[in-house]
Design a protein that fits this description.
The longest helix has 32 residues. This protein has three helices and four strands; from the N terminus they run E-E-H-E-E-H-H. It starts with 14 loop residues before the first strand and ends with a helix. By secondary structure, the chain is an alpha+beta fold.
Length: 137
């Protein structure tokens, strides 16, 4: 009897074939569990040993998350991107100052100010997403 007769990924078998490279460099056919049939049905949450009790339908990376935790992940990525931009802008600003390039220094200073503003906004969004997610229990 088929595990899930309506699943289009595995045709109801529960297994999806894929190609795997062996140590010798040859390809062999292997199988993995179908995520549509056998993926977790609840959010894996962020804390080990403290899974979220909300239904988790969205896969992100290696985990399955509820909508609230996905919002936190997206907001956290925005903070990370803004911090990375600030780091690079500071480096280039030092280069511009070392080479006495006033025009480039002015442009980079403006961009750095904008990046810091984006960082503050992203941090507020992250705080709001964390507050909105709350504790479901």
């Amino acid at each position: 009897m088929a595990a899930h007769p309506l699943c289009r990924e595995c045709d109801g078998t529960g297994w999806i074939p894929y190609r795997s490279e062996t140590i010798e460099g040859e390809l062999e056919e292997a199988y993995r569990l179908c995520p549509g049939c056998y993926g977790p049905r609840h959010c894996t949450g962020f804390k080990t040993g403290h899974p979220c009790s909300r239904a988790g339908a969205m896969r992100y990376g290696l985990g399955y998350y509820c909508e609230e935790h996905i919002e936190i992940i997206y907001a956290g990525e925005g903070v990370d991107h803004a911090r990375e931009a600030i780091c690079y802008l500071k480096r280039w600003l030092r280069v511009a100052r070392d080479r006495d390039n006033e025009f480039l220094e002015m442009q980079l200073s403006e961009a750095l100010g904008e990046a810091k503003t984006r960082l503050r906004r992203a941090e507020r969004e992250l705080d709001q997403a964390c507050e909105d997610a709350g504790d479901p229990d």
